[in-house]
Design goal:
Elements: E1 3-5, H1 8-19, H2 30-43, H3 45-56, H4 69-79, H5 81-99, E2 106-109, E3 114-122, E4 125-129, H6 138-151, E5 155-160, H7 170-179, E6 183-186, H8 189-198, E7 208-210, H9 215-224, E8 229-230, E9 238-243, H10 249-260, E10 267-272, H11 275-291, H12 295-305, E11 306-310, H13 314-324, E12 328-332, H14 336-340, E13 348-351, H15 357-362, E14 388-396, H16 398-402, H17 405-414, H18 418-425
Parallel strand pairs: 1-11, 4-5, 4-7, 5-6, 7-8, 9-10, 9-12, 10-11, 12-13
Antiparallel strand pairs: 2-3, 3-14
Helix pairs in contact: 2-3, 2-8, 2-9, 3-8, 4-7, 5-6, 5-7, 6-7, 8-9, 10-11, 11-12, 17-18
């Protein structure tokens, strides 16, 4: 891995390089995506099935687009008891964590006759997009469905592209059934996003779409936002390890590569105060790459977006971490909890040498759907909050309103909104 001195120039260059990975910079695909969205909006199932045949090479129709109970049971037999047990353990941890995020309606009354409050309502129907093809990510299925269930969403619709044989990956089906998906449809890509956003003869319209996907899925979600809600526009995966001389180089290298193997646009960054650690980590990454099955992808990822930055002080390293605002941030320092208090921007923070990032991907419980491309400065991980909406409650008695009605009328008249003022005044005209 490249080793550079951390200064303003290297930090600026790194940030400019990372931002190139944002889905917002892939405008050349937008016309194709819009054509797909409009076709599904206008022609419904006809366009959805045609695109599925074109892109996924699968023959899907109104009779087989919905995954059957028989297909789900076949998936259970294929997955087997050992993996099923692991999926259930993971789901248990995810459920427990997200159930603690639940919010409840509240009301506050006063003797003067006012009632103010907030009514919390789960979304009625949510769509979960799950990638298919060669990749199978049952962990993402759990992470997207579990918080929706904890929030009390009325109906969870899942879409995922089928293979050429018209089947859905077994682990994906089992994870969806265990987590609580109500219906699963064989549809993927921008056409599946369109189906969820607008509805077709087979797939119902939803209120919100969540879940990761390729650039076409990301741009489709971006385009339908406003017509429905979405979770976020996810970019390529990223990890930043902040470490001092106490860190174990082998651990740091292994953790950096755990994200670099996602794809060639993934980012892996070490910021350290130790030149010795920097050299050792670089050596370990070379050694691991020769042994790992996705070594070619890892190497390209590191060549494009991998960095080892050596900082003069720990404060400089922390400032860099806050500026980069990584999706995953690992703290491997002498006092990691103290460092954690100084971190403002990160999707998820992993503290200590035995809190490796894959722990969060699969098992710990907090959501692994996290803000990318610096958006951790203003976005949060997927949570129960993403599956609820809030309504303000206002109730005043006549006596309570009478005490303040002239103030409201004056305020409205200041804004030249006389009908507003009149709406209050008519209640007290003699």
């Amino acid at each position: 891995m490249r080793i550079e001195k951390l200064d303003q120039d290297t930090k600026k260059g790194l940030l400019e390089n990372l931002i190139k990975r944002s889905p917002n910079n892939y405008g050349k695909y937008e016309k194709d995506v819009l054509d797909i969205l409009n076709a599904v909006k206008e022609k419904g199932d006809e366009a959805l099935f045609a695109y599925t045949k074109q892109f996924d090479k699968a023959s899907v129709n109104a009779g087989n687009v919905l995954v059957t109970e028989e297909e789900i049971q076949e998936a259970y037999r294929e997955v087997g008891e050992e993996l099923l047990g692991i999926i259930r353990k993971s789901l248990g941890n995810i459920r427990t964590y997200h159930e603690k995020q639940r919010q409840y309606s509240w009301f506050d009354s006063t003797p003067e006759g006012t009632i103010l409050g907030q009514k919390v309502t789960p979304l009625a129907r949510v769509g979960v997009y799950v990638p298919g093809g060669k990749a199978a990510y049952p962990s993402s299925v759990l992470m997207n469905i579990a918080p929706a269930k904890a929030a009390g969403v009325g109906e969870i619709i899942m879409v995922t592209p089928p293979g050429r044989d018209g089947k859905v990956t077994a682990t994906t089906l089992v994870a969806a059934k265990e987590a609580g998906a109500d219906r699963i449809y064989k549809a993927g890509g921008a056409q599946a996003v369109a189906a969820l956003a607008y509805g077709t003869e087979s797939i119902p319209k939803v209120d919100k779409i969540v879940g990761p996907g390729n650039i076409y899925v990301a741009l489709a979600k971006k385009s339908v936002y406003g017509h429905v809600s979405i979770d976020s526009i996810a970019g390529p995966s990223e990890i930043l390890v902040l470490a001092d001389e106490t860190a174990e180089a082998k651990f740091v290298a292994a953790d950096l590569l755990s994200q670099a193997e996602h794809d060639e646009m993934a980012s892996a960054i070490l910021v350290t105060t130790s030149e010795k650690l920097a050299e050792e980590v670089s050596e370990w990454t070379d050694r691991f790459i020769r042994e790992l099955s996705r070594g070619d992808i890892i190497q390209k990822s590191l060549d494009n977006y991998g960095y080892i930055l050596v900082a003069d002080t720990l404060d400089d390293a922390i400032d860099a971490a806050n500026e980069i605002a990584s999706e995953h941030l690992e703290l491997m320092t002498e006092n990691p909890f103290e460092v954690m208090t100084k971190i403002r921007n990160a999707g998820a923070i992993f503290i200590g040498p035995y809190s490796s990032e894959p722990l969060g991907d699969y098992f710990a419980g907090p959501n692994h759907v996290l803000p990318t491309n610096g958006t951790a400065k203003f976005f949060s991980p997927l949570s129960v909050d993403d599956f609820i909406k809030k309504s303000s409650i206002i109730s005043y008695s006549r006596d309570a309103l009478e005490k303040i009605h002239t103030d409201i009328e004056k305020f409205a008249e200041t804004e030249h909104l006389t009908a507003h003022a009149n709406s209050i005044r008519v209640r007290f005209d003699r």
